[in-house]
């Protein structure tokens, strides 16, 4: 359910569970974290997250969420592993992003989305706290008030508004998503891992 493709410094991780809206199990989260940690060791220059189908991810698998996944430390392990990557990290949002899946996306350097994608994180309604790092990363991107619109008021934000806020960096047609990611990745793929890491560290 997690697919990894490695091509000349470009690591692409695909959430491949479209029949369940790419909802995430504990095993899937652990696998993505393992891949991110391996990418750091093996000097990936670009790390891309994408979903298969029409939804990026609906968040936690509902059955596992009821059994404790919603508060499992694996979410923080995953977002921390992505945030710590010294390479360029890109979330290619092929569709809606919901719930705990927000953490790994907030930890990326860039977020590209298709028109019509929605972003929401219904922790208030569901009775859970967000993962500790998520509100901080969200507020750093869009400010505290807009973060409260998502986390406390429970609003679903359309891609266009999310782009105006700075939560999404670019909106592209679905058929252009892969080419856009390739274009954004090109310079980093052509550089040395140390050069990529050096520029990221300066920022």
Quick structural overview:
This protein has 203 residues and is an alpha/beta fold.
Please count the helical segments: 10
Can you tell me the number of structural domains? 1
Net shape? globular
Mean pLDDT score? 97
| Largest sheet properties | 6 strands, mixed
What fraction of the residues are assigned to beta strands by DSSP? 15-25%
| SS elements, strand count | 10
Oligomer: single chain
CATH architectural type? Alpha-Beta Complex
Q: What is the CATH superfamily label?
A: 2-enoyl-CoA Hydratase, Chain A, domain 1
Helix content: 40-55%
Distance between the termini: 34 Å
Helix-strand string: EEHEEHHEEHEEHHHEHEHH
Radius of gyration: 16 Å
The CATH class designation is Alpha Beta
The CATH topology name reads 2-enoyl-CoA Hydratase, Chain A, domain 1
Describe the structure.
By secondary structure, the chain is an alpha/beta fold. It has a single domain (2-202), classed as 2-enoyl-CoA Hydratase, Chain A, domain 1 (Alpha-Beta Complex), CATH 3.90.226. Helix content is 44%, strand content 20%. It has ten helices and ten strands. The protein has helices at residues 26-41, 62-66, 74-83, 102-106, 123-126, 133-142, 144-151, 159-165, 177-190, 193-202; strands at residues 2-7, 10-15, 46-51, 55-57, 88-93, 96-98, 110-113, 118-120, 157-158, 170-171. The strands form two sheets. Strands 1-2-3-5-7-10 form a six-stranded mixed beta sheet, sandwiched between helices. Strands 4-6-8-9 form a four-stranded mixed beta sheet. The longest helix has 16 residues, at 26-41. It is globular.
